Amino acid sequence: MTGVLLVLAGTSGAGKGTIGELLRARDPSLGWSVSWTTRPRRAGETEGVDYHFVTHDEFERARDDDGFLEWFEVYGDLKGTPRSYVVDRLARGEDVMLELDVKGALEVKRQIPGALLVFVKAPSREEQRRRLEARGSETPASIERRLDQAEDEERHAEAAFDAIVVNHDPEQATSEVAGILEIRRKTG
Questions:
Q1: Left, alpha or beta for 75 (phi > 0: left; psi -120 to 50: alpha)?
Q2: H or E, element range at 6
Q3: Per-residue pLDDT for 161 more than 90?
């Protein structure tokens, strides 16, 4: 028996992190793969919970040893999903959730065709901007870059993802994702 690999992706500021956190709280059996990143830790983030914060050298050594299911440079930093965590749990029949950007989600789907890709988007560009500004860690230039990239990411999602969830309300969006996951669990 193989577990379900749920991949949450979406535009920056869509709320996929919040949805992922709420889903894990509702469903403790859902494994959570913590990505590696070389970007600095944001206020409120915890090592080993939000990300594994590593140096470029540490990341590149793991990458060169085929240690990642997917990895990309994102906004100048490296991010990747540890391969062994995901593959081992799926082989044991356990479900795993990843939170990735669109490029990472598409690469996971290429390597694991049965992955369930769910795209999360903000209800509007204005709300997305508000959420990015509320982080307090984004520069005006990085916000504009992320908003510009959102258009392209949403076009890719329409063609390549299994489902799209608009995050008007995190609790409701989490319920929608949970329902999509439950259907996959039942139908394989």
A1: left
A2: strand 5-10
A3: yes
